[in-house]
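User: Good morning. I'm curious how MU-OXO-diiron would be positioned relative to this chain. Could you predict the structure with it bound?
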Amino acid sequence: MLSNKIEKAINKQINHEFTTAYTYLAMSAWFASKNLSGFAHWMHVQHQEELTHAAKLFDFVIDRGGRVELEAIGKPKGDYSSPKDAVAAALKLEQTTTALINNLYGLGAEEKDYATHSRLQWFVDEQVEEEKSVSEILAKLEMAGASNGTVLMIDHHLSKRGKS
Ligand code: FEO
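Assistant: Good morning! Here's the predicted structure, ligand included:
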């Protein structure tokens, strides 16, 4: 059985994962509007990945006999000044997610809820991958500078991302 404190915290994280998914979907739409279909594809796959994160937490609450309470999701930012601006925002989002996951992981230990602590281990590890993949794209865009040709090469590379 989940404590009220843990249940509330995981419900909050479910909302964050859906909010993140929605933000990536808005980023995908923005890239599509700029004819950068590789970036748009990458962001769309990322959107789907975030939905799976929300679903994992959703299932966990139910498996533990808790109650899922879904909250409203705000309107995501839909405009960016450049691909670099959008990807920098994605990295910031992942860094926020990492901080929230770390807090939740810590809360599991603090509350002696070892099942939550253990489940959250997957998310702690996943965040390393999440931050790494977005950081790599950002680093490439920084290297590209004002070269549209290089941005198009990155776009082509991102179009190859498989479904999560
Ligand atoms: Fe659900 Fe991108 O972390």
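The helical segments are 4-33, 37-63, 83-110, 114-144, 148-158. The chain has one domain: 4-158.
Let me know if you'd like a different ligand tried.
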